[in-house]
């Protein structure tokens, strides 16, 4: 049980999952079967072991629960693995194996045979192999020996060493302090940790961590060209001055309802210029915004609200507000704690601009929820300095500026929107709000790109493949204008370069620059 617990916790930590499965072998000779040890034949069986190892669970509790579960299953150890897989209905159940080779060698019998027959037995050993990518073999004894075997076509030596080190570290933690939570076990050795830190320092971009905040950068863009168009939303256009004033009024409203440094404000606003102003208004108060898609299921919204505990929420309309859970996540008080766009004053108090508090670069800017390894939304909090550092670090590569036109194609609850919004507005560019219906219609979106003269496009590879088919099919057609694209950034999912063959055949090196940024929420974008 100790070894199964250690291997299960190591896998859980390395994969980021609370529940993991691996295989283990059993002799197939139960103790309650008379004469089982003297029966001739192969009774060995491989069975799945499921370990529940949430980060906060003490190691001893994980081991106790595992032992109890294994005891309940003793009467079913005769079931073959193919039958278990068929019953489970989920295909392959595991890809690592833990084997405890505790079969005994009759040392006294060997000694007696040598004495009687004059034979000398020099060693007793066996060779075995499995088809699993990783097999851990434990040899109990006065000194426990552990062997980790792996398939070199699937893992390299360094990966195998990482697995083995993690396993041993959990074993050591179990022996040192069984009450320690699984998430507190240090999987890296002191040497490995030092190497990670040194490599990280060597790879870190040059330059200091940005000072200031997102509102500071936006204010600079407003001051530079207040009459320039900041946001285009259908037939409406907002200049930098107008967007700044609208966000000031929203900041005043939210401030009066408790928004400020160290707090969260929930947003459930349809894609629009008002949505962008609301984001800026939240950030101006020093609070962080929690973006909730207007069409998100109520139960998921409730989980995110219960996790973030925003001080106030801002919804599109009163009808939409009344369909939302309370801002504390409870479903029995719909709409409680929410304001709407109709509550935004027509003018700031005394027509005064909002005076933002001193916002630390380390202050939270937003929290975006990923699906989470357990299926429950997991909030990722990102600071102002993370966003600014991303833009500053990539500035030399992209050269964004006031002549660029961006699209807000993605939901503001998807981290790609952070790149789209602030890549445009912090450099004095123009942001085009794309209607939700247009994001699902490649032909309409292609027309928008040409009509708005978009220069910077951000897409997931799967969305771009559909768009590219349309663009390549329209190329040269009567009535179709030229694209103004200079940069296409891919992110959100893995890119298969082979899928871009048609694009390269058409444009070669003369088309827009294609950049595979990939990106994950935990690293800002």
From TrEMBL:
Domain Condensation: 2-194
GO annotation, biological process: amino acid activation for nonribosomal peptide biosynthetic process; lipid biosynthetic process; secondary metabolite biosynthetic process
Signal sequence annotation: none
GO molecular function: catalytic activity; phosphopantetheine binding
Pfam families: AMP-binding, Condensation
One Gene Ontology term, aspect cellular component: cytosol
Domain AMP-dependent synthetase/ligase: 219-525
Matches recorded under InterPro entries: AMP-binding_CS, AMP-dep_synth/lig_dom, CAT-like_dom_sf, Condensation_dom
Source domain of life: Bacteria
Name of the protein in question: AMP-binding protein
């Amino acid at each position: 049980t100790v070894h199964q617990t250690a291997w299960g916790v190591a896998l859980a930590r390395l994969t980021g999952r609370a529940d993991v499965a691996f295989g283990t072998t059993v002799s197939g000779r139960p103790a309650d079967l008379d004469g089982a040890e003297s029966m001739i034949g192969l009774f060995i069986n491989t069975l799945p072991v499921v370990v529940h190892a949430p980060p906060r669970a003490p190691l001893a509790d994980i081991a106790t629960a595992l032992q109890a579960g294994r005891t309940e299953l003793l009467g079913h150890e005769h079931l073959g693995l193919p039958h278990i897989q068929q019953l489970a209905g989920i295909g392959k159940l595991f890809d690592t194996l833990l084997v405890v080779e505790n079969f005994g060698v009759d040392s006294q019998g060997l000694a007696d045979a040598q004495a009687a027959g004059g034979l000398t037995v020099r060693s007793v050993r066996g060779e075995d192999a499995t088809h699993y990518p990783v097999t851990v073999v434990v040899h109990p004894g006065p000194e426990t020996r552990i062997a980790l075997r792996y398939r070199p076509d699937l893992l390299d030596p360094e990966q195998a060493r990482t697995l083995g080190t993690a396993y041993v570290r959990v074993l050591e933690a179990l022996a040192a302090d069984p009450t320690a939570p699984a998430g507190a076990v240090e999987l890296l050795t002191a040497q490995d940790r030092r190497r990670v830190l040194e490599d990280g320092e060597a790879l870190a971009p040059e330059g200091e961590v940005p000072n200031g905040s997102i509102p500071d950068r936006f204010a600079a863009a407003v001051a530079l060209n207040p009459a320039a168009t900041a946001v285009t939303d259908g037939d409406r256009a907002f200049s930098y001055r107008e967007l700044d004033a609208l966000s000031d009024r929203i900041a005043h409203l939210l401030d009066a309802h408790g928004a400020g440094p160290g707090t969260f404000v929930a947003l459930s606003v349809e894609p629009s210029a008002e949505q962008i102003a609301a984001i800026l208004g939240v950030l101006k108060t020093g609070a962080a915004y929690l973006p909730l898609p207007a069409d998100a299921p109520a139960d998921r919204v409730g989980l995110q609200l219960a996790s973030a505990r925003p001080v106030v929420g801002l919804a599109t309309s009163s009808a939409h507000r009344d369909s939302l859970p309370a801002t504390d996540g409870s479903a029995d008080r719909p709409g409680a704690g929410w304001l709407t766009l109709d509550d935004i004053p027509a003018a700031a108090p005394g027509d005064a601009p909002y005076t933002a508090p001193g916002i630390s670069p380390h202050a939270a800017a937003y929290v975006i929820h990923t699906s989470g390894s357990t299926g429950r939304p997991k909030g990722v909090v990102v600071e102002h300095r993370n966003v600014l550092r991303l833009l500053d670090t990539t500035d030399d590569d992209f050269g964004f500026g006031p002549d660029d036109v961006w699209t807000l194609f993605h939901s503001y609850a998807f981290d790609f929107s952070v790149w789209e919004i602030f890549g445009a507005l912090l450099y004095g560019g123009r942001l085009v709000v794309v209607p939700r219906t247009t994001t699902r219609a490649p032909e309409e979106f292609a027309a928008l790109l040409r009509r708005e003269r978009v220069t910077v496009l951000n897409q997931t590879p799967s969305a771009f493949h559909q768009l590219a088919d349309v663009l390549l099919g329209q190329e040269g057609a009567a009535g179709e204008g030229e694209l103004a694209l200079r940069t296409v950034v891919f992110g959100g999912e893995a890119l298969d370069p082979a899928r871009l063959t048609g694009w390269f055949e058409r444009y070669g090196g003369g088309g827009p620059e294609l950049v595979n940024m990939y990106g994950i929420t935990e690293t800002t974008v």
